[in-house]
């Protein structure tokens, strides 16, 4: 494949700056081809100038201005290699509508939609900063960027020149969202004591919007906006058993969608929901179904989710049938055959990702440890004896089963299982496999050091590192 005349980094490539042991590198996450490419600072300086408006001579001159001397033949070889790997596109990318203009298109009826938070749950952040190192991306809006650079200008000298610290959310074209840098596997704006430096200097409101709203999720199901939480941070689980209650997921004064934080991204449930390989239903029955699932005491995490999947395929979104499936789980030996291929696939994908990331990432950081734990747990359960041990509820620690109960409640209430990744029944079976991996880690079967609330680490790794 020949290089474009006026190249730019493709929109399916996410550049992320990582500093490890004082050495800067930019990792290109190619989400279309599930690949990674690591660049040095000099290569990234050149590539960042390829925004689709310059030919190679223009890139050469702009690079010279930025202190990088490069010859045309060297540029040709560099961009030729990127083109051969499918990382380049031609010309300037059209500017997308801003989030503010998209938000203004919401109808009055949607704005008046009532807001309902996960019942019986309060959240309290313990400021440990554990969430700041387990994700591959932290996004900054333009105002977030200004506040971070003003509060901590010395971070990679980003206060003086944003491009020294930040990279575009995707591609190389100017855009509304920018990705923050990581130092030794953690957000560069996190202090040594684990606290957010931007928060400490300028207050909680100055944090990036995603961090400020984390771990909340917002989903409009046509009846209300459900506010739940992703059960990925240890704080989510600690809060459920805290002696002192935290705070409600939304303030009591917020009762309508148009009162939510403007930065909150509200997903919309599709009008038609795929249940199985060939069956769909309208989403009008979803609110009642999810409440029934949320309120039913969980008999057994992994077995219950597989039983729920079977009930969905047989009875659609019938609340009574699903509640019965959750509360009366059989010891069906066929369950092993249901989860085994999913565990094998998850183990293989995660182990491959662990090796890829290990080429440039310190395996001791949260992501490296998480990838090793998920891969180790999933692959260990390839042993039928170990899998049956993980399925034995009596052998599972009480705190792990408590985490499973919160996970199912929050996922059901927040409509997290209604995704574009596949039919509801298949999503539920995949989630059962994740619960088993977390059990394997907690029970010492994964061959890694203990992780507190391992289900949270499994969820974070699977959701954000391309191994789902």
Please characterize this protein's 3D structure.
- The protein is an alpha+beta fold and 468 residues long.
- Among the domains are: 7-87, Outer Surface Protein A, domain 3; 270-464, no CATH class.
- 42% of the residues lie in helices and 13% in strands.
- It has helices spanning 41-48, 56-65, 72-84, 99-103, 108-111, 142-151, 197-202, 209-213, 234-240, 286-295, 301-315, 319-327, 335-358, 366-380, 384-391, 398-413, 424-442, 454-464, and strands at residues 7-9, 13-20, 23-30, 35-39, 88-90, 115-117, 139-140, 167-168, 178-179, 182-183, 186-187, 216-220, 225-229, 266-268, 272-274, 280-282.
- The protein has a 5-stranded mixed sheet.
- Helix 13 (335-358) runs antiparallel to helix 14 and helix 17 (424-442) packs across helix 18.
- The longest helix has 24 residues, at 335-358.
- The two termini are 31 Å apart.
- The model is unreliable at 99-104 (pLDDT under 50).
Summarize the structure.
The protein is of the alpha+beta class and 468 residues long.
